[in-house]
Amino acid sequence: MTAFLFPGQASQFVGMGADLYSEFASARRLFDEADEVLGTRLTSICFEGPIEALTQTAVTQPAVFVHSCAAAQLLQEQGLVPSHVAGHSLGEYSALVAAGAISFSKALELVRERGRLMQHAGELEPGKMAAIIGMDDDSVKALCAEVSAEGDVVPANFNAPGQVVVSGTAAAVDELAKVAPGRGAKRVIELTVSGAFHSKLMAPAAAQMEAFIAEAELRAPQVPIITNVSAGPIDDVSQLRAHLIAQITSPVRWTETLSYLAGAGVNRALEVGPGAVLKGMARRAKPAPEVQTAGTAEEIPKAVAWVQDCAQDQATPQGETPKGEENG
Question: Which of 94, 118, 225, 324 could be bridged to 6 by S-S, CB 3.0 to 4.6 A?
């Protein structure tokens, strides 16, 4: 079985999606529709930058979403239907589109508001995020609780074994960064972000997103979607709405998501969208599906061939020569 995995913020780069736009009419239509829905030239920023504009949360989130949806549509046009979908933070919206739970245009409107509100929340209450490398999940949880009993710093992303991102007020994150090396952390890397995502500092954004999500037309997904909040499949529409709100202030349980997929029989996955962040995470996680990237005009046909070859190998009994290949 093959899952589609969708990246979140921090996967963006100048030039993202430009090759898809130039080579595929369906991708061009999605990017053009995005410009119309947003009332801005998102395509220009994606393709030409500057990077300072592209890394603004209000721009980054729609950019990554549109690129991911364009890549997913190209894969589906070539006959690939995912057995499961999951998205890292923002990527959950791309996953919902791929699962048929929401339209592209409506999801884009939600992503626009999400990015705008999260950026504004970060401006109202500035915070920080940092990656803690080399400590296990429970140790990071305990250290966060020790540094701040009030939840001023919390685990935000459980990305892979030995890689947990924390988020919170600048003072609390700085304090944790000082203490962590003495508790087993190999490195502490401060992230370049515009706010303390997946922490209580995002509560104003979550509260305001509730009304937008309540009004959006959602349908039961056609394939299982593994949400960040549950790290398991959710098909009830009311629960999906609740999880989309909760994930703004809740941790991304990505390690558990990969483990769930592997346990459900998903042995391969495609990272659908810009970059290769999720592929790197999967390499460090066990159990986890094998991941290949599918975000560029060059990668997409290779990804399709890889999935088809894997399916052929599984369909052919061991020791039996596939039909049509007996004589080379």
Answer: 94
